[in-house]
Design goal:
Strand content: 25-35%
Largest sheet: 8 strands, mixed
Helix content: 25-40%
Number of helices: 11
Number of strands: 23
Shape: globular
Length: 438
């Protein structure tokens, strides 16, 4: 069946060459975002509307802003189950563009299942009155994300950049029964240092579900990524930002020594520090920043305009959350996910997808990319549920069936192809075609 896509919007932000040498800058800022009141918790439907009972460890928003002359990119890591809603994303973009001229964003949730629900709205039946504290939290969260991005932009100073990778076998494929099971074991680390060598921040990219804590534990927690970042920051005195990968079908893989959130996080931190230590940062010869965002429109696999479907989701989660999540697009049986593609200094490609992508999507993208290095960020700039590969959907099972994978089959592949096209365009690989344009 022909894949339906009626809309592809590309916003391409280019830093053109100029006579003067451009300066590469970077800044960091962070802020705590732990709810101060009891709110419903995100991630496990069986909890329904059960309220949080305390805090195991604090939640944070951490931001790196990369600044190349008039173009700026914000890389934002959230200790939350997902990134902001589409409406929140629109307001965040407008605000940071107006205040700090940040035109590109990659905002990812770590996907901890011990964070708060952020989808509830100040509308009857969608959160108002029943969950006013959760509604208030979402508004406060949006403000804090904006505030922290602006602070990171204001902190930008001349910087050096470098990156490295390491294969770390601390994840496993929880879905496939076909051997060999796909697993993306790549740990990616980006280091940003000031021109005098002092650390600004490091960005860590790895794919594994932060679901080590039991669903019955109703305390807020940043889970293993939080434990990893804490250990890194304590040992090397460098701010650490975590960007989740394509972990739709990947869970943690533990041993006796790495069982539990803290032990796993500390073990991962050892690998992060080792990888970071091998990186040599440098001032880019020709600082450049390019970005593109593609918004797609696909049909849904379920009929969301059917009252029975809505009733099922109200029962599976809780009525206010189900109602708040039913966007105008979903009620028209349409879904609009996005892919954001960034190329830094013609070398480092960053691709963010707005959902839970299965790992083979990222593996294949990285294999096909001709950038010096390519990292994939999941749960990025929105959240449109699971994106299994075609093969995984054919296997069925959790994450691959229509109850949680709402987008039409093959959507993930089409989105990855578009990201690849954008990378090649930014690398200047299609100049002949461009020169033929009238």
């Amino acid at each position: 069946m022909k894949l339906y896509r009626s809309l592809t919007l590309a916003l391409v932000l280019l830093v053109s060459s100029s006579a003067h040498a451009k300066q590469f800058k970077a800044g960091f800022a962070s802020q705590e975002i732990t709810p101060q009141k009891a709110t419903p918790m995100w991630g496990y439907g069986a909890r329904h509307a059960a309220l949080s009972t305390g805090v195991r460890d604090s939640l944070f928003v951490k931001v790196v802003v990369i600044d190349v002359e008039s173009e700026k990119l914000a890389i934002v890591g959230l200790d939350l189950g997902r990134s902001p809603t589409d409406a929140m994303m629109a307001r965040i973009r407008t605000s940071i563009k107006d205040t700090s001229n940040v035109g590109l964003v990659l905002i990812s949730g770590s996907h901890t299942h011990h964070g708060p629900v952020i989808e509830l709205l100040d509308e009857p039946g969608k959160g108002k009155d029943a969950f006013d504290d959760a509604v208030a939290y979402s508004k406060e969260l949006e403000f804090k994300i904006i505030q922290t991005i602006n602070a990171a932009a204001a902190n930008a100073r001349p910087a050096k950049i470098g990156w490295g990778t390491k294969s770390v076998a601390m994840n496993r494929n929880r879905h496939s029964k076909i051997e060999p099971k796909p697993v993306d074991t790549e740990l990616g680390v980006i280091r940003l240092d000031a021109s005098d060598g002092k650390p600004i921040a490091m960005i860590v990219n790895y794919a594994a579900h932060p679901t080590m804590m039991d669903a019955s534990d109703l305390r807020f927690s940043a889970e293993w990524p939080g434990a990893m970042m804490k250990a890194v920051e304590q040992q090397v005195d460098t701010p650490c930002v975590f960007m989740q990968g394509a972990s739709g079908d990947l869970s943690t893989s533990t041993t006796e020594e790495t069982r539990g959130v803290d032990a796993f996080g500390k073990a991962m931190a050892v690998n992060v520090i080792e990888t970071a230590a091998a990186i040599t940062t440098k001032v880019p010869d020709r600082p450049r920043l390019k970005g593109a965002e593609d918004i797609f429109e696909f049909p849904t696999r379920m009929a969301f305009n059917n009252p029975l479907t809505q009733a099922i989701f109200s029962t599976a989660f809780f009525p206010e959350l189900a109602s708040a999540s039913m966007s105008d697009d979903l009620l028209k049986n349409s879904i609009r996910p996005r892919i954001t593609t960034v190329l830094i200094n013609q070398e480092l490609a960053l691709v963010g997808g707005s959902g839970e992508f299965f790992c083979d999507h990222a593996i294949r993208l990285k294999q096909r990319s001709r950038a010096a290095e390519t990292f994939f960020f999941g749960y990025c700039n929105g959240h449109h549920m699971y994106f299994p590969t075609i093969e995984a959907a054919a296997e069925g099972g959790y994450g691959a069936d229509s109850s949680v994978s709402w987008v039409s089959l093959g959507a993930g592949e089409e989105m990855m192809d578009q990201a690849l096209l954008q990378i090649y365009k930014m690398l200047g690989k299609f100049t002949f075609e461009r020169n033929l344009q009238p």
